[in-house]
Amino acid sequence: MKLSHDCYSAGNLTAAKIGKAFVYCLIIVVSLKGNSLIGIIICKKKPMRKKINYLILNMAMSDILISIFVIQVDFVELLVELSRTICKVAPIVKYLSCVVRLCLLRAWF
Q1: How far is CA 34 from each of CA 41, 74, 77, 85, 100, rounded to the nearest angstrom?
Q2: What is the spatial distance between Cα 62 and Cα 68, in angstroms, rounded to a whole number?
Q3: What is the pLDDT, as a whole number, of residue 10?
Q4: Do residues 80 and 10 lie in contact, with contact meaning Cβ atoms separated by under 8 Å?
Q5: Run means of pLDDT, 10 residues per run, the chain, 109 residues
Q6: 104 neighbors 58 (Cβ within 8 angstroms)
Q7: How would you class 90 by CB atoms within 10 Å of its CB: exposed for 0-12, middle for 13-18, buried for 19 or more?
Q8: What is the pLDDT of residue 106?
């Protein structure tokens, strides 16, 4: 069974696609909750406001962007036809998120 990676094809639902969609949903929810919790803890607790924790906070926010844009594109590709805007934005966000992480790591160490 060949799954298409083209942004513009939807295909029909099969058991494999439904299982894959469930896993994507689980990854998105866990990522959003966990990374949001990191952000809330660092922002609310005064002793946590240190330089290294701001680096961790930035990486958590980068993970949230990946969850929203990149994983979502793979998930939505399984169910419905994507708009052209999402298909063009997702690779850019993926690339920029990685570049920001590398620049921050380089600046801190």
Answers
A1: 11, 21, 25, 28, 20
A2: 10
A3: 46
A4: yes
A5: 48 65 84 93 91 89 82 66 62 78 72
A6: yes
A7: buried
A8: 73
- Among left, alpha and beta (phi > 0; psi -120 to 50; other), residue 104 is alpha
Q: What is the pLDDT of residue 37?
A: 95
Which pLDDT value is given to residue 78? Answer: 64
Largest CA distance in the chain: 53
Specify the pLDDT at position 8.
45
Between helix 72-79 and helix 15-44 the angle, nearest 10°, is 150
C-alpha–C-alpha distance, residues 67 and 30, integer Å: 10
In this structure, how many other beta carbons lie within 10 angstroms of the beta carbon of residue 98?
12
Cβ neighbors of 90 (< 8 A, separation 6 or more) are: 69, 70, 72, 73
* DSSP label of 80: S
